[in-house]
Design a protein that fits this description.
Layout lengths: L1 H23 L1 H20 L3 H31 L6 H37 L1
Helix pairs in contact: 2-3, 2-4, 3-4
């Protein structure tokens, strides 16, 4: 019974972390707005199952990267007591770059999927 209880607790901790992420991280709210816009656009343009999968994967990647970035930032701030240390700054900058790269990849996927359909609608 201990194994099952531990698995249930691990999900509870994960959901608590997701709630904290959305409550305390302003960037994730912007990314959520972009994801909602992509979903609305996808339904409006009747994208294919494969296109939906691409949108889901890149959106999940952005959310996951933002979660990791936020975790590293909190841990870094705690570790160095919010003092600016060159090594901590480098870690935080690289972590933020991971989010930026994931977001740029998501934008590229969305352009590839949506732009031809929008051009077709406008012509």
């Amino acid at each position: 019974m201990g194994y099952i209880k531990n698995r249930i607790l691990s999900f509870r901790y994960a959901f608590r972390g997701a709630a904290t992420l959305f409550r305390e991280t302003p960037n994730i709210r912007l990314q959520l707005a972009a994801a909602i816009a992509a979903v609305i656009t996808g339904f409006s343009l009747h994208i294919s199952r494969e296109e939906w999968l691409a949108i889901i994967i890149v959106t999940g990647g952005v959310f996951a990267m933002e979660a990791m970035n936020s975790a590293l930032e909190h841990l870094s701030d705690f570790t160095c007591r919010k003092e600016i240390h060159p090594a901590i700054k480098k870690v935080k900058d690289i972590s933020a770059a991971a989010v930026l790269l994931a977001a740029m990849a998501a934008l590229a996927v969305e352009i590839v999927i949506f732009l031809p359909k929008i051009i077709l609608l406008l012509s």
